[in-house]
Design brief:
579 residues, mainly alpha, Growth Hormone, Chain: A, two-stranded antiparallel ribbon, POT_fam
């Protein structure tokens, strides 16, 4: 979704700081490469979203899993798929370059989809009726999930940045900004279209033509993804890997720990890069300043002024970068609960399956396709926010952005609680009608209630992401140094990953506690017997508590959208040492 789309955009801004470019013998890159790169990413998203949206039904029907177990597995899969892009970004920046990581990720996703398709083609790959899956069957299934997660770790963090690499051959071109904007527009449009196709067309095929076709078509799509990417290989600008920002942050921690007991020298000098605007470290988190203090000039500084031992002496920029990261971590942590509700798509699908989904007398919307309303909400809001909402808000607030990024995040966090309350109200009505109609024991019975009652909660979830996720990315970008822009993507990916782990733990814990003593679990496979409404209210309470925690974090951080830079009021009266 957009949160996931904007996260990827941030990686582009750090290209010049992290990489060096091979100069080809003939001109390469440019707009001619865009169809190949965009097709690769778009097809991967169609496959991953289309499989994840409907997977709960495959696990429950094909592997006889309960709703709690199936949802827990999907949330762990989501967590892994959101953690590995952080590793993928690190490997591409530090060792292999983006092209190789995208290729590796695409091939891994392709192999994972093939394994998943084989679970539908080989009878022995799934358990017989009414039997539990054995270890070999689960190993094949989980191997497919693992390979697809590894693939996501390669494609998602590198694709948009690899596309931007194609426009750096001529940095003096006055049309670069316009060309990049064209690229971004096409890229985001294709990603949005991919999500819509995934939760409508692909889900419809799975529901009406079976899992063999539903998983076979993704195999074809991933093969096309790899083929189109390789067809453009001779046209690409391929950027070399270089020193990673993450390595610099680790160096600060290591040097600080090494120097933790050393006193500051009498005439303290700090080591900073040539041409840097930041020559003195700030006084917050002062212990970290020991990482850039020149303790032994003869051994730590080369004749040209550079660091001779980067694991003994860091620059002021490195120290300030780590301080900036540490300061935003509390606000970052508030995003975990908000992303938690995005991992619960299986509950909405189970609700929709038990409701009247007729759009016409002859056509029913697949239960997993109702998530498209959240995607459409994000798309509509994103397209109108800058043009309509911001100018209107600016008249009242005096802020040219309308409202601050912190306010946007706060609204998004509040909307997560609203979305869960709406979900609880609708589910309470749906469950009451099911019991009144004698469907309490009929898992699969259709309640006389339109599934369009689920649309408000999906729209609220989409609006929450449009506010919180996008506001969070822009906040990180405004508060972190520009050479840490790619870290904004990594932080949001980590939010998703931790939310997946938390969601899995929450579902399993609620299931275990509520069914204790022979009672019916709140998250039972039969929603008419369970209490999804209670579970939604529990999550709503967590969201409300998270909102209060966010206000506390903002109060501690300070309400500002400006980058926190070292100032003369915040520094010691000491002399800097430049490279």
């Amino acid at each position: 979704m957009e949160g996931i789309v904007v996260e990827e955009k941030m990686e582009v801004f750090s290209i010049e700081n992290k990489t060096t470019c091979n100069v080809p013998s003939k001109p390469k890159g440019g707009l001619v490469t865009m169809p190949f790169i965009i097709a690769n990413e778009s097809l991967e998203k169609v496959v991953s979203m289309g499989l994840h949206s409907n997977m709960i039904f495959y696990l429950m029907k094909g592997y006889h899993m309960s709703n709690a177990n199936g949802t827990s597995i999907l949330q762990l899969w989501s967590a892994l798929s959101n953690f590995l892009p952080v590793l993928g970004a690190f490997l591409s920046d530090s060792y292999f370059g983006r092209f190789q990581v995208v290729v590796f990720g695409s091939v891994s996703s392709f192999l994972g989809v093939i394994l998943l398709w084989l679970t539908t083609m080989i009878p022995q790959a799934k358990p017989p009726a009414s039997e539990e899956p054995n270890s070999s069957q689960l190993a094949l299934l989980f191997s497919s999930f693992l390979l697809m997660s590894i693939g996501a770790g390669g494609v998602r963090p590198c694709s948009i940045a690899f596309g931007a690499d194609q426009f750096i051959t001529n940095k003096d071109n006055p049309n670069n900004e316009r060309i990049l904007q064209t690229y971004f527009n096409w890229y985001y449009a294709s990603v949005g279209l991919s999500f819509v196709i995934a939760v409508t067309v692909l889900v419809y095929i799975q529901d009406h033509f079976g899992w063999k076709w539903g998983f076979g078509i993704p195999v074809i799509l991933m093969s096309l993804s790899i083929l189109t990417f390789f067809l453009g290989s001779h046209l690409y600008v391929k950027v070399n890997a270089n020193k990673s920002l993450f390595t610099g942050l680790v160096q600060v921690i290591a040097v600080t720990f090494k120097n933790r007991s050393l006193p500051y020298p009498a005439n303290c000098k700090y080591h900073c890069s040539k041409g840097s605007d930041i020559v003195l470290p700030s006084q917050n988190l002062r212990l970290l300043n020991k990482a850039c203090v020149i303790m032994d000039p003869e051994n730590d500084i080369n004749p040209d002024g550079s660091t001779s031992k980067p694991w003994n002496l860091c620059t002021v920029e490195q120290v300030q970068a780590l301080k900036s990261l540490i300061r935003i971590l509390p606000i970052w942590s508030t995003g975990i609960i908000s992303y938690l509700i995005f991992t619960m798509i299986s509950f909405g699908a189970l609700q929709a399956k038990s409701m009247d989904r007729h759009l016409t007398s002859n056509f029913q919307i697949p239960p997993a396709s109702y998530g498209v309303f959240g995607i459409l909400t994000i798309t509509i809001w994103a397209s109108t926010y800058d043009r309509l909402v911001v100018p209107l808000l600016a008249k009242f607030t005096g802020n040219p952005r309308g409202i601050t990024n912190q306010a946007r995040m706060g609204i998004g966090l509040l909307l997560t609680a609203v979305a869960m309350v709406l979900g609880a109200l609708v589910e309470n009505i749906r469950r009451s009608k099911a019991i009144a109609e004698g469907l309490a024991d009929k898992n699969g019975g259709i309640v006389g209630m339109s599934a369009f009652w689920l649309v408000p909660q999906h729209c609220a979830i989409g609006l929450a992401e449009a506010f919180q996720a996008v506001g969070q990315i822009e906040f990180f970008y405004s508060q972190l140094p520009k050479n840490m822009a790619s870290l904004a993507m990594a932080l949001c990916a980590l939010n998703n990953a931790v939310a997946g782990l938390l969601g899995s733990f929450l579902v399993k814990t609620v299931d275990r506690i509520t069914k204790h003593g022979g009672k019916q679990s709140w998250v039972a496979s039969n929603p008419n017997k369970g209490h999804f409404d209670y579970f939604y209210l529990l999550v709503a309470i967590l969201c409300a508590a998270n909102f209060l925690y966010y206000l506390l974090c903002c109060w501690a951080y300070g309400f500002s959208d400006e980058v926190k830079r070292s100032t003369s009021d915040d520094q010691e009266d000491i002399s800097p040492s430049r490279d």
